[in-house]
Amino acid sequence: MTSDPSTTIAPPDLESARDAAAQFLKALGVDIDAPATANTPTRMVAAYAELLAPRPFTLTTFPNDAAYDRLVTVRAIPFHSLCEHHMLPFRGTADVAYQPTDKIVGLSKLARLVEHTARRPQVQERLTQQIATYLTEHLAPAGVGVLVRAEHLCMTLRGAQAPGAETITTALLGTVRSDAALRDEFLHPAR
Questions:
Q1: Predicted confidence band at 120 (pLDDT cuts at 50, 70, 90)?
Q2: Marked catalytic residue, from 122, 124, 129, 130
Q3: Mean pLDDT value of segment 80-93
């Protein structure tokens, strides 16, 4: 998969997915003939189709007429995704920063980039890196920082069963990686 979040995902075959969901649930011993669960395969497919359907996304940029050269940071952007190993949700927040050069970005587009990149089977490490790489490739900033915090239900509901455990990943590129003061500003914001 490329870092480009506009990469199209094949349209789902909802009928085949519904049949497979029914077989899956039956194999796990779920009675899908009961009145309360008769439509569960259809609802299950609709839920996963929604979780895997990113909205269209285009990065909107503007000339950096003010020659602004400090970090632009949007913090606590909420997101949810699906763990590609267990197809269980993980959710959290992303902090995204960039140091502009010639262009600045519409701030809402940073939130849209996070959402768009998360709406596919993912691992948090790749998600973090894809956001940073996309900004570097399409905005050409001096530096980029991405910090993602998430709770993975594959770890908190099953397996280790560690509710509340938080996974943190970072991607630091350009000046955000090489300049200690910028890195510190991003990783340890003043409150």
A1: very high
A2: 124
A3: 96
